[in-house]
Design a protein that fits this description.
The chain has 17 helices and 15 strands. The chain has 506 residues and is α/β, with parallel strands linked by helices. Helix 1 (18-36) links the parallel strand 1 (2-11) and strand 2. It is elongated, with a radius of gyration of 26 Å. The structure holds ligand ME8. Residues 8-11, 19-20, 22-23, 48, 230-231, 233, 256-257, 259-260, 288-289 line the site of ligand ME8.
Length: 506
């Protein structure tokens, strides 16, 4: 079974920020989840190197455009590598094979008379890299998504793709395939976009304005509109138009933020239909991160969250944890360095890491460096074991993007239950008397084995720390396909080298 997950390819007109890190980290969590189920996986992420914004960003720094693209591309790649994004393919749209394939797709559509040349007068937003209708703009005539970038007036001849002939067919596809766009709120938004007749989509830019792009195969005075070129990455990454891409494509899921629902939900499916190609399996849409108090993140307010700065404080997994845990499915979620640190200390530090340290260190000291061997189990032991097994069950099954926070929440609840169990059972007191020492060993064993189960599941979310925790427990390697099971930590087994998993951050 094959599953192909894609992230958006990000504009390189600035440094990578928390939003970019988010979609790629979530994609990585989903890849690890499916790998644990035994799927053969492909994950693509990368950068969108064409278009006017990137071209102007290079000019602003007075840099050669190729040197600029190389520099930014490396910054994005470094962030994804640092945060453990296990991509199989890093996209650069400047790649020759990609450009040839894009031109091929355009020629196919052109030959079907679905592309027309005409004059256009109107407004253009560089932020969106899109022509705007008056109804798309705010009262003072600006783009609501890019209020600080002034929209420009253009009067140009360009090439346009006809969208309207495909609108009904696309609506039908959405209705016939209930999982095609998720969550429901975004599906409804998309259906609203498709409720009215669609205007033709401008798919070219004159070279007099934009040079950074793929030349049109049928008119060398133009480059391809950056969105047409960028969307095609999803196919060119897996080798299209050569054979061999089909199985990956059949299992393709695009992850995107809500800001780019229209290009992915309207333009891309119609481009594919126009080219005579099948549609991807699924479009999973997430909301946005905003600053504390619900304020949009901006450099001038000073409420942006720099992934590298956060990683210096709470580590890679501290950030991965917050991102996995706190994104809400269909409304914006708050993020700030303080919120990340608070969550790190209270959940990873106090609830999860501390318990492992306390129990493993106590076992190490009093049971000869070994996992204590258990005696008979009580009802309380069985109750905890069932709670933990139920809590991690979701990680042994397919997790949709929108369901990740709820699954992580269950892990927190299981960790709370483990802390309560330890407080009630008080193995430290049980150890003091000879006659309760066996009971002490059982309590420690139950806790350590439950922690093994918990960290086996958490490999999907915080892989590096979970690997360390499992090494401290000296747990046998988990099998693939993975399913949560009790009693795989042998009693009497030596413990590994112990340490502090999540050192407290002030
Ligand atoms: O749109 N919260 O690139 P882009 C969550 N090149 N996610 C966020 C976010 C936030 N505050 N800000 C950005 C482009 N993102 C095109 C894409 S794809 C064929 C071409 C994430 O650099 C989210 O995934 O503007 C969003 O959709 C994407 O970055 C936009 O990245």
């Amino acid at each position: 079974m094959k599953s192909y997950i894609t992230t958006p390819i990000y504009y390189v007109n600035g440094k990578p920020h928390i939003g970019h890190a988010y979609t790629s980290i979530v994609a990585d969590i989903m890849k690890r989840n499916r790998e644990a189920l035994g799927y053969e996986m492909m994950l693509s992420t990368g950068v969108d190197e064409h278009g006017q914004k990137n071209q102007e960003a290079a000019a602003d720094l007075e840099m050669d455009v190729n040197a600029y693209l190389d520099m930014r591309c490396k910054e994005f790649k470094d962030v994804f590598d640092q945060f453990g994004v296990s991509y199989d393919y890093f996209v650069r749209t400047s790649r020759d094979g990609h450009k040839t394939a894009v031109a091929g797709m355009e020629q196919t559509i052109f030959d079907k008379d679905l592309i027309v040349k005409k004059q256009y007068t109107g407004t253009y937003c560089k932020g969106c890299e899109e022509f705007k209708k008056e109804s798309d703009l705010t009262e003072d005539g600006q783009c609501p998504l890019h209020p600080t970038m002034k929209v420009e007036t253009t009067d140009e001849t360009n090439y346009f793709l006809k969208l309207e002939p495909f609108r009904e067919k696309l609506l039908q596809h959405i209705d016939d395939n209930p999982d095609f766009v998720q969550p429901e709120a975004f599906k409804n938004e998309l259906k609203k976009m498709l409720a009215e007749p669609l205007e033709d989509l401008c798919i070219s830019r004159p070279k007099s304005r934009v040079t950074l792009g793929v030349e049109l195969p049928f008119d060398q005075d133009f480059v391809t509109y950056v969105w047409f070129d960028a969307l095609a990455n999803y196919l060119t990454n897996i080798g299209w138009p050569e054979n061999g891409y089909e199985d990956w494509w059949a299992g393709c899921e695009h992850l995107i933020g809500k800001d780019i629902l229209k290009p992915h939900g309207v333009y891309w499916p119609i481009m594919l239909m126009a080219a005579g190609l099948p549609l991807p399996k699924k479009l999973s849409v997430h909301s946005h991160w905003v600053g504390a108090g619900g304020v949009k993140m901006s450099k001038s307010i000073g409420n942006t969250v720099d992934p590298e700065e956060v990683a210096e404080k709470v580590g890679i997994d501290g950030l991965r944890w917050y991102l996995a845990r706190h994104m809400r499915a269909d409304s914006d979620s708050q993020i700030s360095v303080d919120l990340i640190i608070q969550t790190f200390n209270s959940e990873l530090g106090n609830k999860i890491g501390n318990l492992l340290s306390r129990v493993a260190k106590f076992s190490n000291k009093n049971f000869d460096g070994k996992v204590p061997a258990p005696g008979a189990l009580t009802a309380e032991d069985e109750a905890l074991r069932k709670t933990v097994l139920d809590a991690v069950a979701g990680f042994g099954a397919w997790i949709d993007m929108a369901d990740i926070p709820a699954q992580v929440q269950k892990i927190v609840e299981a960790a709370t239950a483990m802390n309560e169990y330890i407080d009630q059972q008080a193995p430290w007191s049980l150890f003091k008397n000879e006659e309760t020492r066996e009971r002490c060993a059982t309590v420690l064993y139950v806790t350590l084995d439950c922690q093994r189960v918990l960290f086996e599941a958490l490999r999907q979310v915080i892989p590096a720390s979970s690997g360390k925790a499992l090494a401290m427990l000296n747990a046998p390697s988990a099998e693939t396909p993975w399913k949560p099971e009790l009693d795989r930590l042998p009693g009497g087994n030596p413990l590994g080298e112990l340490g502090t998993l999540f050192p407290r951050v002030q």
